[in-house]
Write a structure and sequence with these properties.
heterodimer; A: 372 residues; alpha+beta; Beta-Lactamase; 3 domains; six-stranded antiparallel sheet; 10 helices; 11 strands; 22% strand; B: 429 residues; Acetylcholine Binding Protein, Chain: A; Methane Monooxygenase Hydroxylase, Chain G, domain 1; six-stranded mixed sheet; four-stranded antiparallel sheet; 12 helices; 10 strands
């Protein structure tokens, strides 16, 4: 066992382990910091979608209430005068539909029969109650209802208000449906988040028979869903694949798109009857956070390397330079002296530390005494 | 009997009479002025209000205002409005060059940009040349027509015809903010649909300005933006926006190739910029992201930089210890370090002159140059402290100096290498 090797190895090894451990802890802390930041990001994604959706639902409901409160509209509906109702409201609808992303507007009569579709005046008279629980409840309860639903015209955000006559008797209802796309577009504008909404293909084919034909196509098919709207189709088609979209609970994950890491939050989308009708995906670029985290790790590792090297230098120079090398010199001279060689004087005393200086002095005295 | 009036009663009478007189004088004036104000409001309000009314959701007068209705409603305005105030906001029925009010304000203009070709990207100047198709879509109800006669379902005008048509109708005045040069050829196609929708596509080749951020050079991603802005009409009148279909249309051509760069994604964004007196102007930016091919800068930049790091290390490796001190004189090794200093200076001139963009700011190249200078400083310090004056020997003895020199001989290159690798990894991170 050589102290020359053992001592530096033990000291440098221990110091290195400590430095590596400190670096690792720093990296874990950094990773947790980033993870916590991402928790906040996922939370932001959920809240951004929820609050925007709620705002749109409120807007649909308020729009519907305004129309339903117009006396001439109520009078025309009470008389079941479709032509008068159309004359009263169609111009208004045409004027605002494109500008305010109004997708559908419809009058119903109890128990849920379509009376006038402003977005498609030629179609009326069909019973909607079989697939419109929200409408059925609004009429039955004579109360305002709002939420997401799929209709013949496609998915939309609806606000349905009952229309009562002067005596308080129910004469019908009116619904205003806002397009779903602006929810995601607004989120993108406000928060810089990409988004996509997927609806079940089977439901779309069964109910949304008047939907634009270029939506339910193989290009938009993702598992059993159809990508109905995406703020950036190229990005969203990469971050959400067939396997990802099959969810019943909120789910999140990270995925790379063109070298950019995205954090993806998937949320099931329910209709008014709490039946899942689709999935919403919100994606946020994590590039900045990830880059900063990776850079922090690199700097931490570099600092660790510097620490280990400098520590090793200090140990080697101290042990070998101050202790072992001078001691080796004295040992060599002592061995020669024991063999009868008195020709080698000790090195200058300044080259020794105080502890060895005594030994060197003793060696020099021995050598001088044994000289012939 | 004659009643005698007390002085206080007389004083009260005088005060009351004065108040009454003042009231008589002021009352007609106030009535007159309030009447004037009311008249002025009535005269001024219809001008701008007529324009805005169409924008208001549910505005009954203009709801679904077709051209005739709008014109009729607007025609009533001058009766109460002063002609000068109302004139700009009131389009004549036949004047199709005025802003369309049929669907209210602001007129929503959908925007999409297709990058057909990217000819060059000079990151040193922050300029790129490309050919883009800019598609604008808006609705002008005055242009609606019976589409039965059209074979394709729309009227189409190409080239000069399109330009002539655009002269006759209203079109948003959109400028490209960052364009510094336009090519000779400008291709146009105009489509007018029966419902009044207008689609204009303009193909232009031009040179554009961009801001280059070389912080992560040579692993950097740069933006090639086309920055569009509406001139003259504020965001209350014209608003740029994009929808899913516009995002899908906005991409780069399959044949787009750019030496040293790899095209990635096209992104659309919309915003507003402030103008005078609180006005805001609508903007939209289509950005093509391109990634630098890092290997292209390996040979000309990074191999010389890393090689020059060896020069200061040679000053250490060329020497060795003896019982007396060191084998090689300090003078020779100092010369080597000074030579290294000049070579690094020359290298920096060569690299910075060919890539001015990396000469400024904090990036991998400037960091590696800093490391070179630091390594040279360390080498010169070792030459002076160890080889010339042998200070460790004087202070701690020959053994400490020997061990310290042995340590520096491997620690300096190791730390130098680790730092340079860290710089590259940070850029690539």
């Amino acid at each position: 066992m050589k102290f020359r090797h053992i001592a530096p190895t033990v000291i440098i090894g221990t110091a290195s382990i400590i430095i590596v451990a400190i670096t690792a802890i720093a990296q874990i802390l950094t990773a947790r910091l980033v993870s916590t930041a991402h928790e906040g990001d996922y939370d932001l994604m959920r809240r951004a979608f929820t609050s925007t959706l709620k705002a749109m639902e409120d807007e649909a409901a308020s729009d519907a209430e305004i129309v339903a409160s117009i006396p001439s509209v109520r009078a025309a509906l009470a008389k079941r005068d479709r032509a008068a109702l159309q004359a009263e409201t169609l111009g208004m609808f045409k004027n605002i539909e494109a500008k305010y992303a109004i997708d559908q507007a419809q009058f119903h009569i109890p128990p849920g029969i379509s009376f006038l579709r402003l977005h498609d005046p030629g179609k009326f008279g069909d019973d909607l109650t079989s697939y419109r629980p929200m409408l059925a409840e609004a009429i039955h309860e004579k109360g305002l209802r709002k939420g997401v639903a799929i209709t013949r015209g496609g998915p939309a955000i609806f606000g349905i208000v009952p229309i009562l006559d002067d005596k308080g008797e129910l004469i019908g209802s009116f619904e205003m449906g806002l397009e779903f796309g602006p929810v995601l577009d607004d989120i993108k504008t406000a928060y810089g988040l990409e988004g996509a909404v997927f609806f079940e293909e089977k439901v779309l084919r069964e109910i949304a028979t008047d939907i634009e034909p270029d939506i339910v196509t193989p290009k938009n098919r993702v598992g059993k869903y159809i990508r109905y709207h995406a703020t950036h189709p190229e990005v969203m088609s990469t971050v959400v694949t067939d396997k990802d979209v099959e969810i019943t609970q909120p789910k999140r994950f990270e995925r790379m798109v063109s070298g950019v890491p995205y954090g993806v939050q998937l949320m099931p989308l329910y209709n008014y009857a709490n039946k899942q009708i689709g999935v919403v995906a919100i994606a946020m670029s994590f590039q900045e956070d990830k880059t900063l985290a990776r850079r922090a790790i690199i700097w931490q590792v570099l600092a660790g390397v510097f620490g280990v090297v400098i520590m090793a230098g200090a140990v080697l120079v101290t042990i070998r330079g101050f202790l072992l090398a001078p001691l080796a010199g004295i040992n060599e001279r002592m061995r020669a002296l024991a063999a009868g060689d008195t020709s080698r004087p000790a090195e200058p005393l300044d080259d020794y530390c105080d502890e060895l200086r005594m030994l060197a002095t003793s060696y020099e005295q021995l050598r001088t005494r044994n000289q012939p | 009997m004659k009643r005698r009036r007390s002085p206080s009663r007389i004083l009260w009478l005088i005060v009351l009479a004065t108040i009454f007189a003042v009231a008589l004088v002021l009352f007609p004036v106030r009535m007159k002025s309030s009447g004037t104000t009311a008249t002025a409001h009535a005269a001024a309000a219809p001008g701008p209000a007529a324009g805005k009314a169409a924008a208001n959701k549910g505005a009954q007068g203009d709801a679904g205002a077709e051209p005739e209705q709008a014109a009729t409603a607007d025609a009533a305005v001058p009766e109460t409005a002063t002609p000068s105030a109302a004139a700009p906001a009131v389009p004549a029925a036949t004047d199709l060059r005025s802003i369309p009010l049929g669907k209210g304000l602001p007129v929503l203009v959908n925007i999409a940009v297709f990058f057909l070709e990217v000819g060059s990207f000079d990151d040193t100047k922050g300029e790129f040349e490309c050919t883009v198709d800019v598609r604008l879509q808006w609705t002008d109800p005055r242009l609606a027509y019976d589409g039965k006669g059209t074979l394709r379902g729309h009227r189409e005008f190409i080239g000069k015809e399109a330009e002539e048509q655009l002269e006759k109708i209203w079109a948003p005045n959109i400028d490209v903010k960052n364009r510094i040069e336009t090519g000779g050829y400008v291709g146009r196609r105009l489509r007018i649909f029966p419902d009044g929708r207008v689609e204009s596509i303009t193909r232009t080749t031009g040179k554009y300005k961009t801001t280059v951020n070389p912080e992560t050079y040579p692993f950097d991603r740069q933006r090639l933006p086309i920055e569009l802005i509406v001139r003259e009409e504020t965001a209350d009148d014209v608003l740029l926006r994009f929808e899913k279909e516009d995002v899908e249309w906005s991409r780069f051509g399959a044949d787009v190739k750019l030496d040293g760069w790899e095209p990635r994604l096209v992104d659309l964004s919309a915003g507003q910029v402030p103008g005078w007196n609180g006005d805001r102007y609508s903007t939209a930016t289509a950005t093509l992201f391109v990634d630098r091919v890092a290997s292209t800068s390996l040979a000309p930049v990074f191999i010389p930089l890393l090689a020059s790091l060896l020069i200061p290390l040679l000053a250490l490796w060329m020497n060795s210890t003896t019982e007396e001190g060191f084998k090689v004189d300090a003078f020779e090794l100092a010369n080597m370090s000074i030579g290294g200093l000049f070579s690094v200076i020359a290298l920096s001139f060569a690299i910075y002159s060919s890539n001015p963009i990396i000469a400024t700011g904090d990036n991998t190249v400037t960091r590696l140059f800093a490391l070179n200078y630091a390594a040279l400083a360390v080498a010169l310090t070792i030459v002076v402290v160890f080889f010339r004056y042998q200070l460790p020997r004087r202070w701690f003895g020959i053994h400490v100096q020997t061990e310290a020199f042995k340590f520096l001989a491997w620690a300096t290159p190791l730390l130098s290498l680790a730092t340079s690798i860290a710089f590259l990894l940070v850029a690539a991170a």
